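Researcher: I'd like a candidate sequence for this fold, 731 residues long. If you have to choose between options at a position, lean toward the conservative one.
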């Protein structure tokens, strides 16, 4: 028997030798790189060398933890994930796979005796199984369009598979005599979504499962033109089986076209295996209903629920339904924060959940009977948690990260977090890390705003440092202890910048009022919050107030464009990625209209709509006459959320105004920059631009393509009270 359990101490050459036959013909392995820091400073190479730890899964008996670690190859311009296992206390770590096939989404099956996972077969992702020791690897499915996710029934006899079905019409569908005609015939909205022209949609398929193969595959939404899971972010968390394996629940927004574009009203549907009947469990509940999870005894169903149709950043309530009576209970009715993920305690008496809270993302639990919410992680723990695997003894296996280190697997018990993996210790131990401060910044309306400040390594408070204002996207995404492989605060600080990260209005974790304020007020209070944070930090003796930049993506990109017209010379450089420049154009160019309608307040032709009229009157493009600060614009051409034309307009406007500008367009990227070489290019351009304008005296001849004369072309605008004018423009 060719067992694949491999001691982690073995060399890459040894690993290759024992895994012969698993890598595929001519495939190149992507594994942990050899990285040595030359100067102890965290740089782009160190960022790219880090392992991506993900998907911890506790075995049914609680003795072992299955997980995946991925690495990127710059040369191959892709990533690869392999599977690992360890004891529940973090000891005896073993490697299960070493292939070029990228194994992912692994779970325990057959009572922990075997593992199921996704890996490619003939170029398509399929479901595979293997023994718990890595031997006996076997492909289970051969679906034409591949498998994007799966969930085996508790009795092991059935499996739910996610694959795709055709959607929409091609020219040849309408005119069969024109088989080579290349056109999309469109008669309704949602013909594009995020990063794709919608030609297929995901559907759930149900199949008999023998343990080694599937049969009797049926599409449980056959002939329905609806998504399940819902794009772009829905996954296998959109489904759950009853403990008796007789029923399953799935999430879907059963709408198409314009109706889909203007609504967030998804529902949970109960599917009965025996007779294939379907029942809507959340009919009349008008917002998002997602993440269904049956209690261990199957008597209750929990899920995340938003109240309002069209508001995608509404508070996520934790709802519980009694399956016998249908009675629904909001467990968080008296708790003023939003939940991100849920998991039942093994005894069924409480539900664990993640939630942004006061600038971090701790683990909480709520009692099902008494609705009491308590924090599971330690008070004052400066970290974010991700993933929930509750154990019978009250321990929660999870992942933990901060602005200063990426995900590792932890066990949380008795409010103490114990690290179980150390995938990246070898790299991080070579690095002199930045330091982290929490500042409470007074806002213009008399509140206090939690602001994270990341200081450069070897920080010396007697020196002056250039600074970066980080503008968050979303717009309602938390500025907590996030770790990003592109917007990386540790990397920015390690390049010699003080990084300012305000939790401005519109961010979760500070109550529903703080979160909701931004909707209909894009150019208003949150811009004042940004300026307040900058003004506050400029008072610090270590901040070089003459050399502060502002950077951001998506709504953060909008923020940069807006600040460019109202900043009154507070900033010396800007970087905007995938930002909204022209609000009127954005309203008609985007695809999810519920987002535009809720956050902009409505359409620009609604002349009697005061909120909408204020939004469009304060579009960034209307303040270009005040632009006077160098700006870098980046965008992906496959971004259908915010079209690259928005960035092109901003770049053209700056150039016509005589403002130093540069633009980088990525033809093969979407709203994000995902490919390794593109990501490195983006980071290089990012820091080259900032260094040029924020670090006086630096030699830019080699790094900067534009001439130094550009700096002389900047004509600072008069110190008009632009912010006051924006506020005064309110109807």
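Model: Candidate sequence:
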């Amino acid at each position: 028997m060719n067992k694949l359990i491999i001691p982690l101490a073995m060399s890459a050459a040894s690993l290759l030798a024992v895994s012969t036959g698993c890598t595929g013909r001519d495939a190149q392995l992507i594994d942990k790189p050899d990285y040595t820091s030359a100067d102890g400073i965290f740089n782009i190479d160190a960022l790219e060398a880090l392992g991506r730890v993900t998907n911890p899964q506790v075995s049914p008996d609680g003795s072992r933890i299955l997980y995946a670690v991925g690495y990127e190859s710059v040369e191959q311009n892709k990533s690869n994930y392999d599977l690992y296992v360890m004891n529940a206390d973090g000891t005896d770590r073993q490697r299960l796979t070493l292939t070029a096939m990228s194994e992912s989404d692994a779970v325990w099956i057959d009572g922990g005796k075997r593992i199921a996972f996704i890996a490619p077969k003939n170029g398509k992702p399929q479901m595979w199984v293997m023994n718990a020791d890595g031997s006996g690897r076997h492909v289970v499915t051969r679906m034409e369009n591949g498998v994007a996710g799966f969930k085996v029934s508790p009795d092991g006899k059935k499996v739910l598979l996610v694959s795709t079905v055709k959607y929409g019409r091609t020219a040849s569908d309408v005119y069969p005599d024109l088989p080579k005609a290349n056109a999309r015939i469109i008669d309704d909205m949602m013909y594009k979504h995020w990063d794709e022209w919608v030609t297929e949609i995901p559907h759930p398929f149900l199949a008999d499962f023998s343990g080694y193969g599937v049969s009797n595959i049926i599409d449980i939404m056959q002939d329905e033109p609806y998504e399940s899971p819902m794009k772009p972010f829905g996954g296998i968390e959109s489904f759950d089986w009853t403990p008796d394996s007789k029923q399953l629940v799935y999430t879907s927004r059963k709408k198409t076209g314009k109706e889909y574009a203007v609504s967030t009203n998804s529902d949970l549907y109960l599917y009965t295996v025996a007779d294939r009947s379907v029942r809507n469990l959340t009919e009349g509940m008008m917002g998002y209903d997602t993440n269904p999870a049956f209690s261990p005894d199957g008597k209750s169903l929990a899920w995340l629920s938003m109240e309002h149709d069209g508001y995608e950043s509404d508070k996520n309530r934790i709802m519980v339904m009694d399956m016998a009576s249908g009675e629904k209970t909001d467990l968080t009715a008296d708790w003023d924060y939003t939940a991100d993920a849920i998991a039942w305690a093994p005894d069924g008496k409480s539900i664990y959940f993640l939630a942004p809270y006061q600038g971090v993302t701790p683990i909480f639990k709520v009692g099902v009977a008494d609705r009491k919410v308590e924090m599971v992680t330690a008070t004052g723990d400066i970290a974010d948690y991700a993933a929930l695997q509750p154990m019978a003894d009250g321990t929660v296996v999870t992942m933990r990260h901060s602005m200063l280190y990426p995900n590792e697997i932890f066990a949380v018990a008795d409010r103490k977090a114990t690290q179980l993996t150390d995938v990246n210790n070898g790299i991080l131990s070579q690095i002199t890390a930045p330091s982290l401060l929490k500042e409470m910044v007074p806002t213009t309306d008399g509140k206090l705003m939690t602001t994270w400040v990341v200081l450069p390594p070897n920080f010396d408070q007697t020196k002056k440092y250039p600074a970066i204002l980080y503008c968050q996207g979303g717009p309602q995404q938390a500025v907590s202890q996030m770790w990003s492989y592109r917007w990386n605060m540790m990397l920015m600080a390690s390049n010699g910048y003080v990084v300012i990260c305000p939790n401005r209005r519109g961010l979760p974790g500070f109550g529903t009022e703080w979160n909701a304020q931004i909707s209909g007020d894009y150019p208003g209070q949150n811009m004042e919050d940004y300026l307040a944070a900058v003004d506050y930090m400029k008072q610090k003796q270590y901040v070089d107030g003459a050399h502060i930049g502002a950077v951001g993506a998506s709504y953060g990109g909008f923020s940069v464009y807006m600040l460019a017209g109202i900043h009154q010379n507070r900033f010396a450089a800007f970087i905007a990625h995938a930002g909204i420049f022209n609000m009127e154009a954005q309203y008609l160019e985007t695809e999810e209209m519920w987002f535009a309608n809720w956050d902009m307040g409505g359409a620009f032709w609604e002349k009697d709509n005061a909120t909408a009229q204020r939004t469009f009157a304060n579009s960034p493009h209307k303040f270009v006459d005040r632009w006077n600060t160098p700006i870098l614009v980046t965008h992906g051409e496959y971004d259908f959320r915010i079209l690259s034309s928005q960035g092109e307009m901003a770049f053209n406007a700056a150039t016509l105004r005589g403002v130093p500008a540069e633009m980088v367009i990525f033809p093969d990227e979407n709203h994000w920059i995902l490919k390794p070489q593109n990501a490195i290019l983006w980071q290089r351009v990012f820091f080259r631009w900032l260094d040029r304008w924020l670090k006086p005296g630096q030699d830019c001849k080699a790094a900067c393509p534009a001439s130094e004369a550009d700096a002389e072309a900047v004509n600072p605008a008069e110190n008009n009270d632009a912010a006051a004018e924006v506020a005064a423009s309110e109807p």
